Predict the structure.
Amino acid sequence: MKTLLSRIHAAIYQRRVAWVWWVLTAAYMGLIFYLSEQPGSEIHLPAPDYLLHALAFGGLSFCLYSALRSSGASLLVAHGVAVLGTLLYGISDELHQMVVPGRVASVSDVIADLVGALVVQTGLWLLTRVVPKEKRGGPKESDIHIR
């Protein structure tokens, strides 16, 4: 009976973690939208534009990956959907900038978005291959899923 209760508790905990990651992902996307909404004349960049795009959209791919994994997606699905989702959001971000005064859409920005997502996902993939699950922290797979 104790094992069943611990499994139920772990499943409830996992659902809460997934919900938090999805909310963080939506908030992060909202922040990117807000920043894209700023007129071009009000933007003073502290670093090259392509670097900021790679960092921002790399962060988005991390949020998407974490939300997907905490929702039960496999590693392959989480990596693939995180990259594809980030790419699609990057494209929509550039289309959005076409209607913002002083902003222009740029293919190079979409490429920087994709590169950021690929770098982050490659790093996460390597982390899952090199560092054992127990050393990365978090509950073990057997504690999460009810069998």
Summary: The helical segments are 2-36, 49-70, 75-97, 107-130, 133-136, 141-144.
